[in-house]
User: What shape does this take?
Amino acid sequence: MAKQYDVLFRLLLLGDSGVGKTCLLCRFTDNEFHPSHISTIGVDFKMKTLEIDGIKVRIQIWDTAGQERYQTITKQYYRRAQGIFLVYDITSERSFQHIMKWASDVDEYAPEKIRKILVGNKSDEVDKRQVATEQGIKLANAYGMDFFETSAFTNHNITETFTRLAEQVLAANKKDLDLLRMSGNEEINLAALEEEEGLYERVASDESKGCWC
Amino acid sequence: MAITADDVSLEDIIPISLDFAVVEVSSPEELAVVGADTRVRVSHQEEELELRLPFGSHSRLFLSEVNRAWSDVCKSTTQAPRFEWISKYHKNTRGQGVVKQAPSPLDSTLTQLNEHKKTEKPSDQKGSLERDKGSSNSGTQKTRAYSSQESQGLSSREDRDDLVRSSSHTTSNKAQILAMPQFGLRDNLIKCELMKSEDIYTYLQNFSFFLGTYNVNGQTPKESLFPWLNCTSDPPDMYCVGFQELDLSKEAFFFNDTPKELEWTKAVSEALHPDAKYALVKLVRLVGIMLIFYVKNEHAAFISDVEAETVGTGIMGRMGNKGAVSIRFRFHNSDICVVNSHLAAHIEEYERRNQDYKDICSRLQFRQLDPNQPPLTIMKHDVILWIGDLNYRITELEVSNVKELISNKDFETLHNYDQLKRQIDEEAVFVGFVEGDIDFQPTYKYDTGSDLWDTSEKCRVPAWCDRILYRGKNIVQKHYQSHMALKTSDHKPVSSLLQIGIKRVNPDDYKRTFEEIVRNIDKMENECIPSVTLSKREFHFTDLKYMQHQAETLSLFNDGQVPCQFEFIQKPNESTYCKAWLTANPSKGFIANGGTVDIDFEAFVNRSTAPELNSGQEQIEDILVLHLERGKDYFISISGNYLPSCYGSSIHSLCQLKEPIQDMPQETLREMAEKSGDENAENTEKPLDIPKELWMMVDHLFRSALKQEDIFQQPGLRSEFAVIRDCLDTGIPDSLPGSNHSVAEALLLFLDALPQPVVPFSFYQQCLESCSNASQCEKIISMLPQCHKNVFNYLAAFLRELLKNSASNRLDVNILATIFASLLLKSPTKQDFAEKRKTQEFFQHFLA
Assistant: This one.
């Protein structure tokens, strides 16, 4: 039997504290939902295998602390990502306003060809809605991003959102992938490639041990 | 059969450059026959070659390496490879590039006529090396001879001049294999899981396998094999046809080269069931032992992983006059191995035959697609079909008795004297194999061309030499018979039709199972990400004071499923993992799963960290990043407040403060610190001449310690220092608490903590240069900023007072110069001993 996956890359969840980044991740990877909010203080990650166009894609999804005081640190993780979810809470106008700030941070700190996707979470909380779907669409258009309203609670659009971003990252890196595949590499580790100029030396050395494999 | 390392000669090696290309050109029919050779077209400039590579992992590896090499060339196009090393071989070469037509293939459905090049090899190589494997199935005989030699290890490679070349091939192959990334662990896990849940996504479907074995005694085919191969009403799905003693000539034995291969293959293909079309998947031969495997065309697409191997057990236990050939393949989801063996002859040699069987089982190994996998042995297959001239005889009966039982068709009784039956019953051989009931007369030995028992002098006892056994689940034998009609040989052919339940994959179930497995492995992997729980995420240090140690404890509990390694890591643009006034102890370590480690956060403000905290430019605030190797990062917040102190404040700032420092608003302190460098800044109020804290300490000592024995030489108490510090920072008492020695030490610590020493750094070099000149020294001091000059003169005056009492306090100029010069005159960099001497010399001028 041939190899089970071909590509590994890293996606990052960004957005204000409490918009549901961790819940999105839990729903996507473990199909679980925990309603109580425990702030992520740090950077957490989980692995997931997807199949896109017959290519087995392993994604490492990083869940970051949303609280403002940690942002100087979390920004430093941006450049190690290939794709970013900008998440707001449709019941929080404020979290939506902050997307602009998150997006500009991404422009400043993330690699140039990073792919972004806008996510309005908690779509099930219709009664408390403060941000109209049209507003989300408009903002996404302005930034040239795709847009999804999701609900980690009802599992609405979760897989679609993650798969879409993975597809986009795959497409954005298609040229490199083809080149690498030509050279007969068994697996293409985009994450590790980016790591060479990485922020934290120790992560680079960890990766080279092939720990995600 | 295709290209081997020996078939390529150096002069034909094509440099891999930009105008080089390798394209797979197998025709659709060939692609349908999985296991067929891979045809590739190599083109370079005007030149074009067509090669056949044998099916399997070796060829895949080769092609991927070629592609890799090609893409490397594409990346660095600056220099074309010049192949200089090749030139030293050039003297051996002759002509090249002769175009030749391949011999006409036997079966048009099997092979395609293809054009190719043939190269005359260098004169020093024996035989004809043909790159042409055009008719791989019908076989170019010479080619076959060489490749088979390879597999037998018979060739005297050492004699050849191309030893260098072949050995270099070997090393480079190894290097390539070692360079292959080792990402197999996860794949293997998935493979294992898939195997375990095979029942979920497979179902059984019956297929008919025709097995035939025929010892032809070196004869050429003289009659149609129709009666043997075509004895079933419906066309079987597979044909596995085995021959022994195909060619008894010396040439066949020594060179593994025989025209009979083609003749018998042709005879077989002509006698296959006419109601179906068959594709030849594989043919394998070792001297006279040959196995041909045909499959109905429509099943060809479901055959994969075809490999063939041979093992010689003849002369010296290695030669090919006896032994086995074998083909393994995967059909749908079942792994099947067909073995055709010719075991040792002679009645008494049954133990030798048992040994041959064991040797074949252990020595016959198939390479796997994944080079990291161990080779497959016969017994690792779901279905094993074993045919051949096993050569077991009938013992303990006279020829006449045997013949009588045969004529009575009492095969059951006769079978009890069969060596193979007895050996199987004793579990000495073919353990786990099944043989159907024998309802046909012995197949050996007849007078050639007749049905008469051997009439020669030896008058051999008839025996069931030719047998068909099988091992595996879901196998039903439909028939097991001999074919008396064929008279070409002294043996009769035997056939069996087996109905075998083959595991077929239900694609939907497979997809579901596969996804489930991947999901579970993802889950497992996520659960194995190192993880800890932290007793606290936020730590607060309240009222931290100068040189006061405070500690808080963080407990890390490893709640993950794996041991983990933790470490506090630096944030970007910072050289340490935390601020200088903080340490984490330990800052890295290891926690077994379920284990706990306590980490102490220790805050301690010393003279290097105090100035900025006093002035409010720095706060007790930090975020630490606790990293788990291969795992998460945790952020830990540190907060707190620092009580400003005269310790670590500048002389200038302190001269502005008429109130205790801790009574001052933070804002005022910051403003003062910002202005401190600026001497010209006009203050609304006249500043103090010297810091009041300094005055309080010196005045205290002047009043009560002039005669104190060993003053400035005995240490004070730390606890008393804390009280003195608090006293200075919070009030203006009339006298200071603590012993004289403690006050003296508090004074020294005060001078030591000054961010800018009494003689500022900028004057330091000047002081060194004029240290021997008293008036120069005085001149320098006169140039100091006003408050620094005041402090200097005040201290010098106090020390001179002390020296007046040297009889009691036992001080002298040297002692005081040594102590105070190092505090008053500090080097902005590192001070060496000579400089130290100069600072003391400088200061001595003011003590006289």
User: Anything to note?
Assistant: The beta strands of chain A are 7-15, 42-52, 55-64, 83-89, 115-121, 146-149, 188-189. Confidence is low (pLDDT under 50) at residues 1-5, 193-213 of chain A. Chain A has one domain: 7-207.
